[in-house]
Description:
It is a single chain. The chain has two domains: 3-137 and 242-363, no CATH class; 144-234, no CATH class. With 400 residues, it is of the alpha+beta class. The chain has a six-stranded antiparallel β-sheet. The protein is built from 13 helices and six strands. A hairpin with a 5-residue loop joins strand 2 and strand 3 (170-177).
Amino acid sequence: MKLIERYIFRRAFVVFAAALGWTLAIVWTTQVLERIDLVTTNGQSVLAFLELATLIIPSVAPMVMPFAVAIGVAHTLSVMNTDSELVVINASGSSRASIIKPMLLIGLGVSIASFAVDNGIDPYARQHAREMVAAARADLLSSVIQEGTFRRVEKGVFLQVGERRPDGLLGSIFIADSRDPQIDLVYYAKTGAVTNIDGRNLLLMREGVVHRRPAGREVSVVRFDSYAFDLSLLAPEDQAVMLFPKDQTLGYLMEPDRNDWFFQHYPTKYRAELHRRLADWMYPLVFSLIALAVAGDARSHREARVHPMLTVLTIALLVRWAGFGAANGAEGNPGLVWAIYGVPLVTMAVCAWFIRTNRTLELPVALTERMLGLVARLLQQVAMWRRRLLRQSADAGESA
Length: 400
């Protein structure tokens, strides 16, 4: 590459890396918080939670990479235009290829990386994560029988153990069972112990009572010296991990096992996932072309109605939304498979035409004015709230 091309490539790549890091951190945090119940509900260690959180990264990265490319390319071109660097490059007689080439190299490189992560790393990470979750939920002794906790172990079943004694016995046991809509059961027992008989986990309770309340009738109380509560009913009978199309490798999607239960019942989901995998890798390249079509030309500040970054991200979100819609539609209608490829390919063709003809890709004027009006009203509302809070603080200070 030429010196100017290396300069542009380095600037865009630094912004891309920073945007990828921050965006990945935000999306990863939201995904991790959805799985915090592995620790709070299933009683797993923090290390197990961190391992699961690490396995989420390959699933999040391919979704974030295209937007990081769009931010990196658009921000670099916008700053270069503000600093008149694009004008100088054009005035020096350098061709537009000096600007286009490094941006396309970033988009192509990230596309290849996205394909490798989505098809080479993510399926194995997903499978291992599902195995971890299944093992955590199957470990009843750690997730259900915990001292001093009142927790839901299944829909309609709550259990509390007051203490674990040194001799292995459990003290002060409470169980509320409302799985049967026709009857509510509440168990109290002074002591108990967990045992395994013929592969079944049983909670043997001693010296307790059962409160039975059939629907629409009064409560009856039955005392017992010993009672066995079947804990195995709270766990899935089949501990095999259910794998969905997103969890399978690319080779498996091309030749799925005909005995796969999910494939037998939902073959179109496998087909849609296969074509999604073969199309999603193009989006980083698509978004780099969008940024070039929007901000690749030098223009004065008077020409810019909206900041190029806002235009690029708006168009990118619309294109990505169309891609998700095509993939979801293909799951129910195989005839829409072409749309999975059509969305990125048509977008690339449109952007290439804008770049080739030296035109600037912009949002419609009506939409632009509406967006600007919305932003202005939002800023006014924020300013009004700020003044109101300051006034309330001042009034509170005077009254104090």
